[in-house]
Specification:
Blueprint lengths: L3 E4 L2 E4 L4 E7 L8 E7 L6 E7 L4 E3 L7 E6 L4 E6 L8 E9 L1 E4 L3 E6 L1
Parallel strand pairs: 2-11
Antiparallel strand pairs: 1-3, 3-8, 4-5, 4-9, 5-6, 7-8, 9-10, 9-11
Length: about 110
């Protein structure tokens, strides 16, 4: 069982930045992909950014140019750098990993105030 622990959420003002971290309980080198999802109140969970095992990146249109997903194999960690945050980015952000099956973290809350 892979465990994923997110951190870095919090309250930030409109236009601010945050960096989320997701640390896995084992090496991420062989993971097929790692991703960040988010779920705003009353909405479905949506994909924000994904990085495949081969390093291919994809982003939701709503975050392109503002968010960046990266990974550090040595730390078994994937990051989501979020810049130019907007109130509509407010959500619980979840880390996901694909390794034989899909694993989820418990989420971290990001709140962007006006």
């Amino acid at each position: 069982q892979v465990q994923l622990v997110e951190s870095g959420g919090g309250l930030v003002q409109d236009g601010g930045s945050l960096r989320l971290s997701c640390t896995a309980s084992e090496s991420i080198f062989t993971f097929d992909a790692m991703a960040w999802y988010r779920q705003a109140p009353g909405k479905q969970r949506e994909l924000v950014a994904i990085i495949t095992g081969g390093g291919t990146l994809n982003y939701a249109d709503s975050v392109k140019g503002r968010f960046t997903i990266t990974r550090d194999f040595a730390k078994n960690t994937v990051y989501l750098q979020m810049n130019s945050l907007k109130p509509e980015d407010t959500a619980v952000y979840y880390c996901a990993a694909d390794f034989r099956q899909r694993y989820w973290g418990k989420g971290t809350l990001v709140t962007v105030s006006l």
